[in-house]
Design goal:
The complex is a heterodimer of chains A (309) and B (682). Chain A is mainly alpha-helical and 309 residues long. Chain A has one domain. Chain A has 11 helices and 4 strands; from the N terminus they run ααααβββααααβααα. Chain A has a two-stranded antiparallel sheet. In chain A, strands 2-3 form a two-stranded antiparallel sheet. In chain A, strand 2 and strand 3 form a beta hairpin. Chain A starts with a helix and ends in a 14-residue tail after the last helix. Chain B has 682 residues and is of the alpha/beta class. In chain B, helix 5 packs across helix 6 and helix 9 packs across helix 11. Chain B has a 6-stranded mixed beta sheet, sandwiched between helices. Helices cover 55% and strands 11% of the residues of chain B. Classes of the chains: A mainly alpha (309), B alpha/beta (682). Chains A and B meet through helix 4, helix 9 and helix 11 of A and helix 5, helix 6, helix 12 and helix 15 of B.
C-alpha cells in the first residue's frame, strides 16, 4: 500500500469513528447548552444502547455475523433496530432526568454532576452484573460488501454508518432550526429565565434535550456494535471521553460544532494510530482537550467563551 | 468550630454554655474514643489478615481527607485524584527499587555517601550498577511535592474556566496517567508492575518488611496528621477563602480573594497529600501496577466524602470507616445471610447473589441517593445554630452607628486635595449594545456621589468596570492618582475600592462572622503553612481580624450582632444588605461602591441606613452609590450623575439635576410637555 492509499484508508476509518463520536457528542452539547451540566451518565447510556441493539438483533433471530441480509430486508431490519434502540435509550435519558436530575435543578455547585457520575456508575454496574464482563459478539446482518479505491477498502458498513449518522444529524439540525420545540430549545439555551417568561415550558425542553441526546447516544452505541462486531460493558468510558473532547473542540453547546468536532476526533484517532502509536492515542486526544481549553476555550467553532457567572 | 471573643448577648447564658460545651466535648470524646479504638485494634484483633486490610484502608482514608480539601473545601470536582496517588507511588517506587540501574560512575559517589544510592556488584558482570535506595522518610515529602507540581500543571489551564471543565480534565488526566505508566516500561515496568520497592525502616525498629502492624500505625498517624491539617486550614484565612470560592466565586474575588491562586493552592495541597499516600501505599505493597490507580479509585474516594459530608472532616472519617467496613466485612456477611434466605425460601436468585461484586453498584446508588436526599452528608459540615431567643427577636433594634471608638476605617491616608476617583472616557460594549459610552467622573475624597438613571442605563456596568469584574474597551480609571484600569477585582480591593452587589452575593453557607473575615483577606497575610502551624503571629492576626469584624458589625447596632454565628442564608433581606455592606467595609476601602443599598428596605430602615452611610463618610470613606430612591439621593448625595443609554447626560447637585430637562425626558418620556408637567407636579 502506498502512502496515499494508507492515508485514504485511515481517513475512511477516521470519518466512520468520527460520525459515531459526533452522534455521542451531540448529547453532551445539547444538555450542556441548555442546563450547563456535564452529563456523565451519557457515557453509559451509549453503552446501554449498544446492548439494546444487540438484544434487538438477537430477538429478530440474528446471531454473530454469519447471517446477512441484502436490499430492503436489510434496511428494514436496521431501521427497526435503530428505532427500538433510540426509543429505549431516549426514554432511559428521560428517566434519568426525571428521577435523578430534576430535583437538583437550580442547585449550584458540584451536586448535579456528582449525581450524573452516580447514575453512570449504576448503569455500568447493572450491565456488568447482569451481562457479565465478557466481550460479546455482536449480531450483525450487514453483508461483507466492499469496494476497492486504489488499495484502500471502503466497506458497506462504513457507507451505511455515514448515511445513518448524516441523516440523524440532518434531522436534528432541522428539528432544532425549524420546529417550535427546536426554537424553544434554542431560546432556553440562550436564557432560561427569559424563555420561561415567554411561555416556554423549560421542563419539557430539558426532557426533550435528554430524549434526543440519549436517543442519538443509543444510535451511536448500535453503530459501535455493527462497526466493531463486538460490545462490552466497558466501551462507554473511552468513547464518552473522546466524544466529550469532540464537543469541547466544536465549542460546547454548539450543535454543528459537535458534529465537526466528532469527525476531527475520529480522524485524529485513526491517523494518530497509523502514524504515531495506538497506545498513545488517548494521551494525544487528552492533550488536545487540554490545549483547546487553554487556548480556545470557546472551541474551534464556538462563539462565546464558557465563563463562570 | 469558630472561637469568638465572648460578647455578652441577651441570650440565656447557661443554655448556650451548656449546649456549646456539650457538643464540643462530645466531639472530643468521640474523637478520642475513635483514636483509642484505632490504636487498640491490632492488639485486640490478632488476625494478621484483618490488620493488613485495615492498613490498606488507612491509605484510602488519607486520600479521602486529601480529596476533601479539593472537593469539600474549595468545591473543585477532581475526578482524577487517583492520578496523583499514582504519581506519588511511582515517584517512590522508581527511587527505591531495582527498576532503574544506571552504570556505576564517579557521578554516583556523592549520592552513595548520602545513602541514596548503593553500588551493586553482581558476580560475573564486569560493570557495577547503581541501585537507588532513597529513604522512605525522605521520599514522603518529595513525592508530595512532585504530585503537587503535577497538580498545578494540570490544574492551571482549567481553573480559569467554569468548574465543570476541571471535572472533565481531571477525569482525562486520571485516565492517561495509568496509560503513561503502562506505556513507559523502562520507568515503571509497565503492566507487570514495579517490584521490590523498599519498605520504610526506623532506627529502633528496623525495616517494616511485610509486617502489617507498623504500616497500620503509620497510616493512623498520617490520618491524624491530615485531620489536624484539615481542621487548622479550614478555620483559617486560607480555608475561609476556599469556602468563599465554593460559595460564590465572583463575590470571593470582589472581596479580594485571588481565586486562581487559591484554587491552585487547594489543588496542589490535595495532590500533595495524594502523592504522599502513594508513597505510603507502594512501600506497604512493595509493588505498583497501573491498574491500582484507575478511575474506580477516584470514584470510591468521592463516595467516601459524599457519604460522610463534603467539607466535613469528621464526616469524611466516618464515611471512610463505613465504606471500608461495608467492603471488608458487612457485605460478605450480608451475602451469607441472603444466601441462607435464598435456601430457606427456595428463591434461586437469592442463593446466587454476590453482594461483594456489586459494591460499585452500591457506590453509584450512594452517590445518587445522597445527592437527592442528603446533600450535606451524614455528618454535615454545618450544624443548625440555635434560634434567637424570644427576647432577642423582639428587642427594639438599636441603630448603632459610628459613635464609638473605631480605628480608622482605612489604612492609607488620602490627600484631600487630589481627586480620589477619576474616570476618563470609560466605555464598554456587549455585542452590539454600548452599555457604557465614554463616561467621565471625578470624585473628591470624603464625598458621597450618587449615580442614577433608568434601568439598563449602564449603572451596574459602570460599577463592574471600576471594580474590575468587567474589562473596559476604552478609558482610564485612577484611584488616588494610581491607574487601576483593567486590574483584577482582587487587586482593586487591595488598592482600596470595595463594593456591594445589586442582587446580593453573600456566602450563604458561611456564618456572618466568616463572611466578614473573608472581607479581611487582603488585609491579612496568613499563608497555608502559617495556618497549619498557627504561630503567635497568626493567632494575633486572626484575633485582630475578628475584633475588626465585630467593630464593623457594631455599626448596625444589634441587628447583626446576635446573629454573628448564624449562617448568612438565614438572614432577612434587609439584614443581608447590611451584612454585605459590613463585609465591604472590613476590606478597609477608601472608596465604597454601593449598588442599591436600600432596595427591599422599608422607610424606617432606609432612613437608618442613610444615617449609617453618612456616618461612614464622616469616618473618611468616600461613597459612590446607585440608588433609585430619590429621597435617599437628595438626602445624602453631594453630587449626582445621571446615566441614560450608557451616556452621562447630567451631573450636578441633586437640585440641579432635578431641574435638568434631559433628565426628565430620560425618566419620564420624550415629550417636553410631559416633562414640564412632571416638573410642576414635583
Amino acid at each position: 500500500m502506498g502512502f496515499f492509499d494508507v492515508l485514504l484508508q485511515q481517513v475512511i476509518n477516521g470519518v466512520s469513528l468520527g460520525a459515531m463520536y459526533a452522534l455521542l457528542a451531540l448529547g453532551f452539547t445539547m444538555v450542556y447548552g441548555i442546563i450547563e451540566l456535564i452529563n456523565f451518565a451519557h457515557f453509559n447510556v451509549f453503552m446501554v444502547g449498544s446492548f439494546v441493539g444487540l438484544w434487538v438483533f438477537e430477538a429478530m433471530g440474528f446471531s454473530g455475523q454469519s447471517e446477512v441480509l441484502y436490499g430492503l430486508p436489510l434496511i428494514g431490519v436496521l431501521l427497526a433496530g435503530l428505532v427500538v434502540v433510540m426509543l429505549a435509550t431516549g426514554f432511559l435519558g428521560v428517566a434519568i432526568e426525571r428521577i435523578a436530575l430534576r430535583p437538583l435543578r437550580g442547585v449550584s455547585g458540584t451536586a448535579p454532576m456528582i449525581t450524573t457520575i452516580g447514575v453512570s456508575y449504576i448503569l455500568f454496574n447493572l450491565v456488568l452484573l447482569t451481562v457479565g464482563a465478557n466481550t460479546l459478539n455482536y449480531a450483525n446482518p450487514l453483508p461483507k460488501v466492499s469496494w476497492d479505491i486504489g488499495q484502500a477498502t471502503l466497506r458497506l458498513r462504513e457507507v451505511l454508518l455515514w448515511v445513518v449518522s448524516f441523516a440523524l444529524m440532518l434531522g436534528l439540525h432541522y428539528f432544532v432550526r425549524y420546529t417550535k420545540m427546536g426554537k424553544a430549545m434554542q431560546a432556553t439555551a440562550q436564557d432560561q429565565e427569559a424563555a420561561r417568561m415567554m411561555g416556554v415550558d423549560v421542563d419539557r425542553v430539558v426532557v426533550m434535550a435528554f430524549f434526543l441526546g440519549s436517543a442519538l447516544a443509543g444510535a451511536a452505541g448500535m453503530i459501535f456494535g455493527l462497526y466493531y462486531n463486538y460490545t462490552s460493558f466497558i466501551i462507554g468510558y473511552t468513547a464518552g471521553l473522546r466524544a466529550f473532547t469532540a464537543a469541547v473542540l466544536g465549542g460546547i453547546g454548539n450543535i454543528p460544532g459537535a458534529m465537526l468536532g466528532g469527525v476531527l476526533i475520529g480522524l485524529i484517532e485513526s491517523l494518530g494510530g497509523q502514524y504515531l502509536e495506538v497506545r498513545w492515542t488517548d494521551v494525544i486526544i487528552f492533550s488536545i482537550l487540554v490545549l483547546v481549553l487553554v487556548f480556545r476555550p470557546a472551541g474551534l467553532f464556538g462563539r462565546a467563551a464558557p465563563s463562570k457567572s | 468550630m469558630a472561637t469568638t471573643p465572648n460578647i455578652e448577648g441577651a441570650r440565656g447564658v447557661f443554655g448556650t454554655f451548656w449546649g456549646h460545651v456539650l457538643s464540643k466535648e462530645r466531639q472530643r470524646v468521640v474523637a478520642l474514643v475513635l483514636l483509642a479504638a484505632a490504636i487498640a485494634f491490632p492488639l485486640i484483633d490478632g488476625n494478621e489478615g484483618d490488620i493488613d486490610a485495615a492498613a490498606n484502608a488507612t491509605a484510602f482514608a488519607i486520600l479521602a481527607l486529601g480529596l476533601n480539601i479539593v472537593v469539600g473545601f474549595a468545591g473543585l470536582l477532581d475526578l482524577g485524584y487517583a492520578a496523583f496517588f499514582a504519581i506519588g507511588a511511582y515517584t517512590y517506587g522508581i527511587f527505591s527499587s531495582y527498576q532503574i540501574q544506571p552504570e556505576w560512575s564517579s557521578f554516583w559517589e556523592p549520592f552513595q555517601w548520602l545513602g541514596l544510592v548503593a553500588r551493586m556488584h553482581v558476580e560475573g558482570v564486569p560493570i557495577d550498577h547503581a541501585h537507588f535506595q532513597v529513604s522512605f522518610w525522605l521520599m514522603l515529602p518529595v513525592s508530595a511535592v512532585v504530585a503537587a507540581f503535577f497538580g498545578v500543571l494540570f490544574g492551571a489551564p482549567t481553573l480559569r474556566l467554569k468548574g465543570d471543565y476541571l471535572a472533565i480534565v481531571t477525569l482525562g488526566f486520571g485516565e492517561i496517567v495509568p496509560i503513561v505508566a503502562r506505556n513507559t516500561p523502562y520507568l515503571t515496568n509497565g503492566a507487570q508492575g514495579l517490584n521490590g520497592a523498599l519498605p520504610p525502616s526506623l532506627p529502633w525498629y528496623g525495616s517494616f518488611g511485610v509486617a502489617s502492624t507498623p504500616f497500620y500505625y503509620l497510616g493512623v498517624g498520617l490520618i491524624v496528621f491530615l485531620i489536624f491539617v484539615s481542621m487548622r486550614l479550614k478555620d483559617s484565612r486560607i480555608g475561609r477563602a476556599w469556602l468563599a470560592i465554593r460559595e460564590d466565586e465572583i463575590a470571593a474575588e470582589a472581596m479580594g480573594v485571588n481565586r486562581t491562586k487559591l484554587k491552585l493552592l487547594a489543588f496542589a495541597v490535595g495532590a500533595g497529600f495524594a502523592g504522599m499516600t502513594g508513597t505510603f501505599y507502594v512501600a506497604k505493597l512493595q509493588t505498583a501496577t497501573p491498574e491500582m490507580f484507575t478511575f474506580p479509585v477516584s470514584v470510591m474516594l468521592l463516595v467516601m466524602i459524599v457519604l460522610g459530608g463534603m467539607g466535613s472532616v469528621a464526616g469524611v472519617v466516618v464515611g471512610t470507616l463505613i465504606l471500608q467496613l461495608l467492603q471488608s466485612w458487612f457485605l460478605q456477611d450480608l451475602t451469607q445471610w441472603v444466601h441462607a434466605l435464598g435456601r430457606v425460601t427456595g428463591i434461586g436468585v437469592l442463593e446466587r447473589v454476590d453482594l461483594v461484586q456489586s459494591i460499585e453498584l452500591i457506590f453509584g446508588v450512594i452517590l445518587v441517593v445522597m445527592m437527592l436526599y442528603r446533600r450535606q452528608g451524614l455528618i454535615p459540615e454545618r450544624r443548625a445554630v440555635t434560634a434567637l431567643t424570644h427576647a432577642e427577636q423582639t428587642a427594639v433594634p438599636s441603630r448603632g452607628g459610628l459613635k464609638g471608638e473605631l480605628k480608622p476605617l482605612h489604612r492609607t491616608a488620602v490627600d484631600p486635595n487630589q481627586p480620589l476617583l477619576q474616570i476618563r472616557g470609560l466605555a464598554k460594549a456587549f455585542g452590539g449594545i454600548q452599555a457604557v459610552k465614554s463616561v467621565d467622573l471625578t470624585m473628591m475624597p470624603g464625598s458621597i456621589v450618587a449615580v442614577i438613571g433608568p434601568n439598563g442605563s449602564g449603572k451596574t456596568t459602570l460599577f463592574n468596570l471600576v471594580t474590575g469584574l468587567t474589562r473596559p474597551d476604552a478609558g482610564r480609571v485612577t484611584l488616588a492618582g494610581e491607574d487601576i484600569t483593567g486590574q483584577g477585582p482582587h487587586v482593586i480591593v487591595e488598592k482600596g475600592i470595595a463594593r456591594t452587589f445589586q442582587n446580593l452575593r453573600l456566602f450563604p453557607n458561611m456564618t456572618l462572622m466568616e463572611n466578614l473575615l473573608v472581607g479581611t483577606h487582603t488585609r491579612t497575610s496568613t499563608g497555608p503553612v502559617g495556618a497549619v502551624l498557627r504561630t503567635p503571629g497568626v493567632r494575633h492576626e486572626e484575633a485582630a481580624a475578628r475584633e475588626r469584624a465585630l467593630e464593623v458589625l457594631g455599626i448596625f447596632g444589634n441587628r447583626l450582632m446576635p446573629r454573628r454565628e448564624h449562617l448568612a442564608r438565614t438572614l432577612s433581606y434587609a439584614n443581608r444588605r447590611r451584612l454585605e455592606i459590613a463585609r465591604a467595609i472590613v476590606t478597609e476601602p477608601m472608596l465604597l461602591l454601593l449598588d442599591e443599598p436600600t432596595a427591599g428596605m422599608n422607610p424606617t430602615e432606609t432612613l437608618e441606613l442613610t444615617d449609617q452611610i453618612r456616618g461612614l463618610r464622616d469616618r473618611g470613606i468616600s461613597i459612590l452609590l446607585i440608588e433609585h430612591k430619590l429621597n435617599v439621593v437628595n438626602e445624602i448625595a453631594e453630587k449626582v450623575i445621571v446615566l441614560d443609554h450608557g451616556e452621562k447626560i447630567a451631573e450636578g447637585s441633586p437640585a440641579e439635576v432635578h431641574r435638568n430637562e434631559e433628565v426628565l425626558r430620560a425618566y419620564l418620556g420624550r415629550t417636553a410637555t410631559a416633562a414640564a408637567r412632571a416638573a410642576a407636579a414635583s
